Records
---
Amino acid sequence: MAASADKEDMICLNDRLGDVVAKVDKLRSGSGQDSSTFIKTIDCLKDEIKKIKTAYDLELSRLRPVLCPPLINLQRILNRK
């Protein structure tokens, strides 16, 4: 499913963002080097995460009306037993 792939992409990007943030923190505290490249990378990754999250939320919104009624009916059937 597209939503599953988007979620995996979001997790991967979030992990990458964490790695970049850790590198930036290390550079700032240690060598005093220019970290503008890392900050640009962080901003880029944040934008990617926002786009994927938006796509994921839209996909969920699209699927809820399709999936919820059958699940509610199934729950009613299971509760009768």
---
Amino acid sequence: MKPEISLKALQYFMAAIRAGSITEAAKVVSVVPSAVHTAVNQVEDAFGLQLTIRNRAKGVSLTATGQQMVPKIQNLLDEYDGLMRDGGDMRTQVSGVLRVGYYAPAAPAFMSQIINRILAGNADVTVKCTECNNQSAQDGLMSGAYDVIVCVANAMKPGITYEALLEVPAYVLVPKNHRFATRPHVSMQDFRHENIVLLDLPVISEYYASQFDQAGISPNIVATATSLEMVRSLVGQGVGCSMLHMAVASDLTYAGDAVVAVPLEPAVEPFKIVLGQLAGNPRRLVQLFVDELRSYFEEEGAQNLSVRRSSTE
């Protein structure tokens, strides 16, 4: 097996070739001459080729083989320098592709604002948002498919750094003409005689089952859907009531029907929305997204994502 060669040895070798002297090269790279001499020997040993002719009077010159190899060595060092520059740019410049994985059915209610803030001032940025479930979001982050994820605090994987963004209480969604629509709040027991439409997604569906079980209710589930807007549209058509968490800005469904969000009282266990990322030094673009996300959830406007009982009641 041929001996390995370091980038440092290649750099010292090229310094000797450019300077034409071991001693002069040592001055250029600020090491003792013996270090450059050793590096030249290591490069030749690694290739198993004589690349230089060394003469006290004439210094260092290249053999015919050396003349063929030097451009290849220089190309490698140039590639390395370019790689290091690119890495530095990724740490310090806001550019490139930001890959966000999210599992929060109402994430469009806030994610679009954050992404708009980033794109508005950074022309060299592209954002790729991928909707996924809690498991695939975390797996994607661990595998490098995503730079950052937004998901529900459930079955957290070790190795991922999580940060709580918002706790959202459950609420009841009903058609505008439903008898619950004018109430200040409803309770879990009010579901007993209602048709129910549920969001059928991992983590969320298990949550619903546990809440109905704790309330001692056998819900009359007449429809399920895997998208938030389909649930809202079914409710708007009067198919049934639903239990949801994160609110959206509009009270109209895709079908144009009005729906009303009614606080649930007594409150049940809320959902916790979290930010997930890998520990370390993130790219500047990733850090900007994280900072914007934190800033958004620290503002009062983020409270519009929750449906809560009025404090004046």
